[in-house]
Predict the structure.
Amino acid sequence: MSSAAQVLKQAEALKASIGDSSSNSHETWVARQHLQDLYQKLLVIDLEYSLDKKVEQDLWNYAFKNQINGLQVQTKDKQNPNRAEIQASLNLFLETASGFYLQLMQELSSAFKLDLPFRRKTSHFGALKECYPYYGKIKSPKKASCLYICQHILVHLGDIARYLQQIEQAQTYYRHAAFLVPSNGQPYNQLAILEAAKGNKLCTVFYYIRSIAVKHPFPVATTNLEKFYSKLIKDSVEYRGKLSMCEFVSTFLQFHAFVHLCTGKQHDSGMP
C-alpha cells in the first residue's frame, strides 16, 4: 500500500467517527484537527491521487462546512439565549478556517513551485528559501491539477469571507479563482451570489449564465438561475410612461426570465 493510500485510510476512519456532526465536544474538535492535518498531507504528497479520491471535497465538508452549518443554524435561533456566544464561536472558527486554507495554498505553492499572480513569494518578506513541512517523497502533479486545487481553495476562502460579511474580500478571492481557471463555472456562481445579495439583478444573471456557459459548467448555477428568474417574474410590476434605466433593466430581465422558464417547460414536456 502506498504512503498516500495509508494516510487516506487513517483519514477515512477519522471521517467516519466525525460523520456529519457539528458537535463542539473536545473529542470531535481533536478529530477534526487531525483530519485537517491528514488531508493537508495527502494533497501535498500525492495531489493526483487525492483529487481522484475527492479529498479536497471531504476536507471542506467534514473539517469545516458541517461545523459552519451547525453554528449558523444556532445563531439564527432567536430563542437561543447564547446566540452572541455562538456567533463569536462561529466567527473564530471561520477565521481559523481561513488561516488553514491560506497556509495550505502557501504549502502547495511552495511544494509544487507554483508562480501564482496573486501570491507573494516568501522572498518578499526577507526569507531566502521557500519552506514547508517535510512529508517525504512528493509526486509531481499535472499543472491543470495544481490550478484546480488552487481555484478550489480560493473559492472556499471566498465563501469563508462571505460568511464573515467581508464582501469585498470574498469578491477578490472569487475573481482570483475565476482568473486561474476561466473554463470552470463555480467561481462565477459564487460571484452571482454576491451580486444577488447586493441587489444587482443584471450582474446576478450575467454571472449565473457565465457559470453555465463555460467548458465545465457548475450544475448548481442552473438551479440558482431558475430560482432567480422565478423571483423576478413574481416580483414583476407594470410600468407606465417612460422607463428609467433601472426599470428598463428589470423589464429586460423579466422578459428573459419568461422566455427561459417557458422554453424549459416546453423542453421538459417534449413540446416542439
About this structure: The chain has eleven helices and no strands. The mean pLDDT is 88. The two ends are 56 Å apart (CA to CA).
